[in-house]
Structures are given as structure tokens and as C-alpha cells.
Amino acid sequence: LSLSLIENIEEDFRNGLKLMLLLEVISGERLPKPDKGKMRFHKIANVNKALDFICSKGVKLVSIGAEEIVDGNVKMTLGMIWTIILRFAIQDISVEGDWKDGLALCALIHRHRPDLIDYSKLRKDDPMGNLNTAFEVAEKYLDIPKMLDAEDIVNTPKPDEKAIMTYVSCFYHAFAGAEQAETAAKRICKVLAVNQENEKLMEEYEKLASELLEWIRRTIPWLENRVAEQTMRAMQQKLEDFRDYRRVHKPPKVQEKCQLEINFNTLQTKLRLSNRPAFMPSEGKMVSDIANAWKGLEQVEKGYEEWLLTEIRRLERLDHLAEKFKQKCSLHESWTSGKVELLSMKDYESASLMEIRALMRKHEAFESDLAAHQDRVEQIAAIAQELNELDYHDAVTINARCQGICDQWDNLGTLTQKRRDSLERVEKLWETIDQLYLEFAKRAAPFNNWMDGAMEDLQDMFIVHSIEEIQSLITAHDQFKATLPEADKERIATMGIQNEIVKIAQTYGIKLSGVNPYTNLSPQDITDKWDAVKHLVPLRDQMLQEEVARQQSNERLRRQFAAQANIIGPWIQTKMEEISHVSVDIAGSLEEQMSNLKQYEQNIINYKCNIDKLEGDHQLSQESLIFDNKHTNYTMEHVRVGWEQLLTTIARTINEVENQILTRDAKGISQEQLNEFRASFNHFDRVRIGEVEFARIMTLVDSNNTGVVTFQAFIDFMTRETAETDTADQVMASFKILASDKTYITVEELRRELPPEQADYCISRMTSYIGSGAPPGALDYISFSSALYGESDL
Questions:
Q1: From residue 767, how far is each of 184, 735, 741, 776 by CA, in Å?
Q2: Residue 295: what are its φ and ψ, rounded to 5°?
Q3: Checking CA distances to 108, which of 15, 70, 184, 505 falls within 20 to 30 Å?
């Protein structure tokens, strides 16, 4: 390759660059870095470096100086080249030792053509036979004439060195073509192996992308379905399904998405390193497409859990209101039972004057009682309206029952007014009334109403979410208990009226009918209700204390969750900052950075148990219907998102360092150069380099116009000029060698020169040769080589 670049000996060696390259190729060693300038002193310096290297190999250069080579002195240049050939081309060929006994010559043939000589059958004590075998094989199979006689070599103490050197050089020339073909075949195998590996990575990416996009497509409609269930159990099952999705189903998909991005970045890096075009996934499967689909999934997911919790609270409120509605309706219906019949009676038509007046008083008491129940009817209507506003599933039944009560209430009002009108018409019949009965009735009715309200309050259902709320109920209950002594006094006073009635009756021998004409309440009713109130008070105390215990347990759960969340949240943030510092730190090697990142990754994996424990506490809180926590600003969703971001960040950072190591090893970048690249990348100055130069650099490091320049792309840019990569021309030249300088290649030549797998790969992808003079089945290796480095499906 180096000699093919030398066209004019007089001119090509004058700047010293090709001379240094020739010495590196012949010697297999690296020379000092050449000067890049074009001035005469730069050329003299490069030639001196080459001459110093020749002298370091023990070669004496007589009258050959750098100035003569730079000035194009042909005689001096040819003398220098002959000296190089003597030193590096044939110096190692010696007539002593192995050449004389024939073993070295047989070994040379066996090394290049093992099918011609069985080296195991040669004997060291038979130099004559060994030499004759080598001469015969060379003449028969290698077209090398027999220029030496075995007897002369063996029997002469010092054979003709130049004759042996000339003869041996024929072998090197004969095998040079074979070695060149072998090198060309190896180059093609290397290129095809890289291409096959890249194709495998592309297929894996397409498969992973398709599966992930399909999972997202199936999941989004499920999260978009916001049709509420009608029961608490069904909604809680939805919440459990969502919890399983976030904890069981989604985390593996997060890992798949991260792995997909890592595979894509690794593939693009390998394509750049092998001088291949960038990989363009199928339509709709770009990394950006997957990111957009994932973003849509998280957008839909964002409000789903909040909607579930809102619906559960709504159903809880609805169940509470429905039960309260039924209880109040039952109390009201119990109270109104028989009232229509009572108001419709015509008993005053046949009653005496005293009985009529008694009926009037009794009706006044009823009106007082009716007015007292107005609040309950309004409460029933208000609860029904709220149930309708909250979309209660059995609103039809609620509305029907409420409408029936309202209609009945209006009818009671109408009937009450009609009866009063009738009684007022006969008001002149009222003559006397027992004031004690009247007073009893007036005091008993409100006291009875008070007891009814007290019993209703003592049995009233409640729902609270904090200790403060239950303490408020306990305070109200304590205030109610403080009124019991006054109520007891009222009861004693009311019962004292009845006792006075009995006393008067006994004193004056009045036979009582046993019925108070002004009220349906009997002393026994007052006594029974009072006993019921006293029985309900301790039950209410017990219920409130049980709720206090439940709220205290909930508070412990809040504090337990907050204690962990307030540790885990800052820990995740700290780890994110530490990882970002490691990724930009230029101190230490990439291997040290990788070791640190792997240690961070292991620490993060080991920390997973704390996240799981926090998930357990979060589940206990939700099962206890705890929806807020004033002891921490971190919610479970915050911790989940932070944890997922931490896992993604450490994986991406590790992948970036791996790609940097891959780039460094592939391009021969030293650690010092890599540190300089990192410092330059961290202090990249757009203003200082100018807008035009900045635009040119951006087209190289950001070919997809994403607006983001990665450190990997920056390294590719910095090392682009010195990268040693295969090109399409090199692959074409290699195929041309295998094809014996023809512009086409046959299937037989491919199978003879390449391994079976690589040969089949080429045969399946090469197009037929359409030029003239080619045998049937000839293949076009030129278009195939171009396709390897162009826009194609290979």
C-alpha cells in the first residue's frame, strides 16, 4: 500500500513523509511523529528522522545527507533505497544453518503451501534429500527453475551466498501474491463480519421497538378509560389494578425503553467507527417516536390515579349520604304514619264543647310538632339534591322517595290548615280546658322533639380524615353531655305536671281517661325515650373513641411513610448529582469512571429494598383511605418517578462511558487526549470560534439537527482526521485482487478465497455482472462494495 503511493522516486521522498511511511511498513515499527509544515527545514527534519531510524538499525550511510534527498538528488536517493532494501528486505536471508540443511527452505514452502510438503516426514540428517525435495516442489508447483545444485550446497563449506539469496528471493516473490490474496480475504471477512453484526443489532432494535410500541398502544386506551364504577369495591379493584401496573408491568418496560436507547447508541457508535452510514429505523420506530409514544403514555397515566382516588372519595361520600338519607326518611315516615288519617277525621262533629276545645289544643300541639319537622324535610331534600349532583347510581329511587315525602308534606300542610279552619268555626264551643294537661302537652312536645333530635344526633353517622376532625366531634359530644343535667330538670318538671294531674284527680276523685287530650305523648313515652337517650350516650362515646384510635393509627402510618420518604427523596437527588459529577469529571481514566459508575449502580440496586418498603407503607396508607400527609412533601409518585430517572441516568451514563472506551480503543486515543477532549467539550465557546465555523462543526457532530451535542459525537469529530477505517475503495481493491484484476468475480473464486459463511453472504447480495466478456454467473463486486458504505439495505 505504501509503495503504491510512490510514483516518482525523485520527487516523492523530498518531504520525508513517504520515506518515513515506507520505513514503518518495511520495519513494522513506529517512527517519531513527522513535522506537518511545508517549509524546507520541516522537510529536512522529517528526512533526518528517517535517516536516524536507519542508522539506529546498525546501517552506515556513507555520503547520504538529508539536504541531498530534499534537493531531489537521484543518485543519493537510489543509494539510500538500496541500503534500505539490503537492511530490511534480504538481510535476514542467511546461507548458514537452516538454509544449508534444507529444512528452512522446506519450512518456507510448508508455511505458505502446506499441501505441497509434509514437514513431519523431513529429517535433519538428510540435507541432500530435503534440498532436492524443495527444488522439485518449487520447479513443479511454483514455477521456480532449479538454479542450484544440492550437492554444491551441502558439500561446499561456504556456498555462494548471493546465489542462495537470489534463489530464496524467488520464493518470497512467489508467495507474495498468495499473502496479498490472504490479506485481501481477511479484510473482506472483517468488513462483512462488521456488517453482519450491525444488521443483527438493527434487527434486534426493530423487534424491541415494535414490541414496546405495541405495549404502549394497548396500555393507553386502558388508562384513558375514565368510566367510573358504581361501587366502592369495583373502584378499589381499579386502584389495585393500577398499582399492579405501576409496580409490576411498567418497570420492565422502563428497562426495555432504556435498553432500546442503549442499543441504538451502541449501534450508531459502531457504525461510525466502521465508517458506515447512520442507522435509520423503520418509519414510526425512531428513538424520538418511542420517546413521544412514552410521553403520551405518561401524560395519560399522570391523572389516572388521582381520578381513581377522587372517585373513591366520591363513592364513599355517596354511600354515607345515601345511608343518612334512608335513616332520615325512615324517621320522617315513622313520624308521619297515620297523620293523614288523623287530620282527615270528623270527630269534632259529634264532640262536646269540652272535647272540641281539647281537639283544638291538640291540633295546636300538632302544628307545633309539624313545624319542628320542617327542618328534617328540608334536610332530606338537600341530601337528595346532593346525591343527584354527585351522580349517585340509584338516584331514581332516591328521587322517587324524596318526591313522595315532599308531596306528603304538602298534603299534610293542606290538611292541617283545613282542620284548623274547621275547629275555628266551632271555637265558641271551647269553654274550659285543663291547664295542666295543656302545660304538659306544651312542655312534653318540645322536650320530646329535643329527645328525638338527641337520639338522631347520637345515632348519626360520621366520616373524618384527621384527629382534629374527630376531636371536634368529641368536643361537640361533650358539650351535649353537659346539657343533660338541664334536660333532666326539664324532664322532672314535665313529669311533675303529670304527677300534679294525678294528684288533683286523686284529691278530687276525678276519673281520668288515661289519655291527655292535647298530646299523644304519655309519661311512659317520655321515660322510655329518656332511658334510650341515656343508653345511646355511652355507645356514642365508644364509637368516638374507636374512631380516635383509628385516626391515631392513620397518623402513625403518615409519620412512618414521611420518615422514609424524607430520607429516600434527598438520597435519590444526591445520587443524581453524584452521577452527573462523575460523568463530567476529567480526573482518572475511563476504566476508573466505569468502576465508580458500576459501584454507584450496585449501591442503587441494593437500595431498592427501601423503595419496596416505602411502597408497602404507601399501600397500607391507601388501604386505610389516607389521602394526604402533612409531614412530607414527597408523594409515592414523586419517589417512583425519581427512582426511574435515577435508574435511567446511571444506565445511560454507563453506556456513554462504554462507548467512549470503545471509541478510545478503536481510534487509539490516549487518556491525556481524552481528558483534553473532555475539557474542550466542557468549555466549548461558540462566540470565540465564530458562527460559520460553529455551523460547520454542528453539521458534523449533530447530523440529525437535534440541538444536542453528545461527548461521543465530539470525540468522533476530534479524531475524524486520524481515524484508520476501511473504505469502499479499499474493499473494491481487495475484491479485485481475489478476482485476478478482473472487473467481475465468479462464485468459484469467492468460495475458494473466503470462508463459507462470508462467501454465501456475498453471493446472496451481489448483483449479476452486466458487462461484456464475463462468463455466466459472474458477479458485480464493485456495486456491492459501494453499497456497503452507501444508503442501502445491507
A1: 21, 14, 19, 12
A2: -60, -40
A3: 184
Is residue 599 within 8 A of residue 534, CB to CB? The reply is: no
The answer to whether the beta carbons of residues 732 and 702 sit under 8 Å apart is no
Tell me how long the chain is: 794
Residue 353: per-residue pLDDT: 52
Sign for the CA dihedral angle at 128, 129, 133, 139 comes to positive
pLDDT of residue 275: 76
Please check whether residue 702 is in contact with residue 759, taking contact to mean a CB–CB distance below 8 angstroms: no
The Cα–Cα gap between 445 and 519 comes to: 8
Grid look-up 299534610 returns: 412
> 193 to each of 80, 184, 202, 278, 485, how far by Cα in Å?
42, 14, 14, 17, 99
DSSP-assigned beta bridge partners for residue 767: 780
Please report the pLDDT score of residue 684 as a whole number. 55
DSSP state of 387: H
User: At how many degrees (to 10) do helices 523-584 and 484-508 cross?
Assistant: 170
DSSP conformation class of 3: G
Q: Is 137:117 a contact under the CB 8 Å cutoff?
A: yes
CA–CA gap between residue 575 and residue 244 (Å, rounded)? 27
Report the pLDDT value the prediction gives residue 188, as an integer from 0 to 100.
73
CA distance 729 to 735: 10
- C-alpha distances out from residue 558 to 473, 564, 621, 639, Å: 22, 10, 7, 16
Query: Do residues 701 and 257 make contact, with C-beta atoms less than 8 angstroms apart?
Result: no
Percentages (nearest 5) of helix, strand, coil residues in the chain? 75, 0, 25
Instruction: Please report the pLDDT score of residue 383 as a whole number.
Output: 83
Name the 3-class secondary structure at 105.
helix
